Amino acid sequence: TSSQPKKEFVNEEIEETFSKYDLPISFQEPVTQAMLKEILITDTDCVSLLDIPPNVVSVNSDGADIITERNKQYAEACGKRFKIDNYVDRAMQTLKRAAKNKCTQMDLMLKTDAGNMPLFHLSALREAFCFPQTFDMFVISSCSLKDVEAVGTSSNTKLDWELIKTSEKFHYLLVITERIILRSIFHCPLAAYRGLPVKPEEMDQSKRCTEISCSPALECLWVFSCELTRGRTVSCMAWDKNNPDLLAVGYSETDSMNEKPGLVCCWCIINPTWPERIIYCDGAITTLDFSANHPGRLAVGMSDGVIAIYNLQTADIKAPTFSKYVEETVGSFATCISHKDCLFLQDANIYLTCTWEGNIQKRSCSRSYDLLETYSKHSGPANCVTWCPFHPDVFLSCSSDSTIRLWKQDCKSPMLSFTSNHRAVHEVRWSPRQAAVFGAVNDSQLEIWDLNTNFLNPVIVQRAAPGLKMTSLLFASRSDCVMVGDSCGQVTVYKLQNIFTGESSQVK
């Protein structure tokens, strides 16, 4: 029949399948109805080896409402992701490998803090200065204009500000702040004054040319001037022997018919804009000097014959600690003070004075007849005399006859004579660093002489500004600088270039 070949074909497929998996079943005998009755088919427990839930869920299935709500929330979140910053696209690396260290060489990185400073209420500042707490204090941490207006309308602002202004600590902090600002402004001039190196990019083009040039020259660093000194004449200057950064300057009036009270200003080199101490005197200042044994003591001589001593260690100087009037009959000392003639002590017993007759007098303090010697050569009034700081027997003098003369104690005639531009020489000073270098000023110019280079002409000539007259001169004690006073109340600080090759105490 036709069913017989089909059965044989099915049996062959079954045998081939079981032989493929090496199953020990063989259908050699034909299957009969009796054999099928003995077979029992039952259900066994289902073992789930892989369960993958479907992506699509039927609407009628359990939990379809929850899944639908979650899909709506996800769609809304995806629509808002480009409008807010809560979503950031970034790559993630989950593989964590061993850390590797790399050694590199680079320049040091400087870090600075940048940002807005918070505003503090004045009551908080009062707390910093240890004022009594009589009001509630709060701090404003924001910097908005609204907060600033709120602070400005406080009822306690005026009272707090008055307490702060009277605080000593507040004034001390203001001084510190002022010094920091001035050091930043005058950084290059102060570095040049102290002989410190200055970066080329911080220098002006004119100063670079001066550095390159090998000829002697002057470089203007700064000017001591303020409202109190304008219109006055610089009559004398002196350095503090205990504090080389403190300069005392005496001011007077050129018009003797309309003479104003004298003024003494003590300047510090780190603050050229305002003096550290201000002293008002009754008469015009003719000479002044610091004490070497008593720090902070300044002796001032006035045109009316009064000698006063002031204590600079007090902040508010209203009166001298010592004052005495020296009569004309006492001797040349009073004459020297009243006529602006300079007096310089070389030792405890011998001193020199200048006279209107053009004579230089050597006097003694230990003898009853104090006049020891008279040096006569100037044809006009002698204005200044100064000892050489390197040789005890040599001194310089200048006169209104436009000459500068070099003297020796044991010789009545001058050893050398120099002519200064046919004008009256107001002052002459030795350099404290070079025995052969001295400076002189007349109305029109400053002259720097170097005897090792030239005996006939000064090596440096600095002309006065139009309308000004140079009146006073002083070398810096610990720097290659010179201070020049003028008739307008200004003290100009000049740096000497290419003239000092090292400290020397001998003349070639």
From TrEMBL:
Chief location: cytoplasm
Gene3D superfamilies reported in the protein's UniProt record: YVTN repeat-like/Quinoprotein amine dehydrogenase (2.130.10.10)
Start and stop residues of the WD repeats: 375-408, 418-453
An annotated Gene Ontology molecular function: dynein light chain binding
UniProt keyword annotations, A-Z: Cell projection, Cilium, Cytoplasm, Cytoskeleton, Flagellum, Repeat, WD repeat
Domain of life: Eukaryota
GO biological process: cilium movement
Any one GO CC term of the record: axonemal dynein complex
Compartments where found: Cytoplasm, Cytoskeleton, Flagellum axoneme; Dynein axonemal particle
PANTHER family the UniProt entry points to: DYNEIN AXONEMAL INTERMEDIATE CHAIN 4, DYNEIN INTERMEDIATE CHAIN
UniProt protein name: Dynein axonemal intermediate chain 4
Native organism: Cyprinodon variegatus (Sheepshead minnow)
Classification lineage: Eukaryota, Metazoa, Chordata, Craniata, Vertebrata
